[in-house]
Design a protein that fits this description.
With about 250 residues, the chain is α/β, with parallel strands linked by helices. It contains 10 helices and 9 strands. About 35% of the residues lie in helices and about 20% in strands. Helix 8 runs parallel beside helix 9. The longest helix is centred in the first third of the chain and has 17 residues. Bound molecules: ligand BJW and zinc ion.
Length: about 250
């Protein structure tokens, strides 16, 4: 393990183009629950049951209760040492030979903790839990009310509001996806952190980067399907491992 950390730290230090893909595990040490694995379920519902347009159409109140609960946990959470290490790595790389595009942080998380940790170049593949969008007129707005008083909340036009996030079966925002693909296809090192790597197309960025020549590293509490492809696999907590890469 120590040898892998040392080797990965050297690769990270030498690379001029790095992409980091994060998932729910990086926020676990901040008290934000993951989706899968121990403690990942809410009232025995899997994310595949709740994070879908069909679930929302069938029971918008239930889906909003889940988001209300998560919003209340996220608003009390603080970025942890893992978020802070990635923000510091971005600062170092941005002032190096690769410039501002030398480090790209691609996240599947909707919690905003990377922004609050000071990361600047953040690509949000699955949206933002503090954005809401009208299912009728399509208007988007920021809503930081915790808890939301009336569920489901309504737009001024009368239609229901939905969370501004990407559910199963929905396309990822095009501009974010294009940025993620562009950075991954140029990366020298691609680091996947705190993700079970089972949700596509996000997980496919690691394979895309590797096919284009990147070396692949995994930092995760448990094994993932990407481990078999990776040059470095570090099993442990991201809040403990990421600061050791600096
Ligand atoms: C720690 C830790 C610590 C804990 N330190 N580690 C190809 C193959 C198969 C299926 C598909 C495919 N392409 C598309 C699909 C379908 C589907 C999909 O992937 N399904 C699979 C599940 C089978 N994908 C989609 O539907 C996507 N859309 C799409 O493909 O659209 C195509 C389209 C095109 C044009 C028109 C229409 C459609 C959309 C996927 C959206 C996912 N949405 C969610 C909810 C977001 C909003 C919200 O947050 O509420 O995204 S579901 C949920 O899963 C969330 C996450 O971002 C995502 C990934 O989860 P993540 O982050 O990996 O978390 P966990 O919990 O799974 O893992 C955490 C890990 O951390 C664990 O391993 C722990 O061990 C670890 N850990 N503590 C380090 N301290
Ligand atoms: Zn509306």
């Amino acid at each position: 393990m120590t040898e892998s950390i040392r080797a990965l730290r050297q690769a990270v230090q030498e690379a001029n183009r790095i992409v980091v893909l994060t998932g729910a595990g990086i926020s676990a040490e901040s008290g934000v629950p993951t989706f899968r694995g121990s403690g990942g379920l809410w009232r025995n519902y899997s994310p595949e049951k709740l994070a879908t347009p069909e679930a929302f159409a069938q029971d918008p109140r239930l889906v909003w209760e889940w988001y209300n609960w998560r919003r209340s946990l996220i608003c009390q959470a603080e970025p942890n040492a893992g978020h802070l290490a990635l923000a510091e790595l971005e600062r170092r790389k941005a002032s190096g030979p690769g410039g501002p595009s030398g480090f790209t942080l691609v996240t599947q998380n909707v919690d905003g903790l990377h922004d609050r940790a000071g990361s600047r170049n953040v690509v949000k593949l699955h949206g933002d839990i503090w954005q809401v969008r009208c299912t009728g007129c399509g208007a988007e707005q920021r809503n930081e009310q915790v808890p939301l008083a009336n569920l489901p909340p309504r737009c001024a036009c009368g239609a229901w509001l939905r969370p501004g996030v990407v559910w199963f079966g929905e396309p990822l925002p095009e501009a974010e996806w294009d940025r993620a693909v562009e950075a991954s296809s140029k990366a020298q090192v691609f680091l996947a952190v705190g993700t079970s790597a089972v949700v596509y197309p996000a997980a496919g960025l690691a394979e895309l980067a590797q096919a284009a020549g990147a070396r692949l590293a995994i930092v995760n509490a448990e094994p993932t399907p990407l481990d078999a492809l990776a040059d470095w696999v570090l099993h442990g907590k991201s809040g403990e491992l990421l600061p050791r890469l600096l």
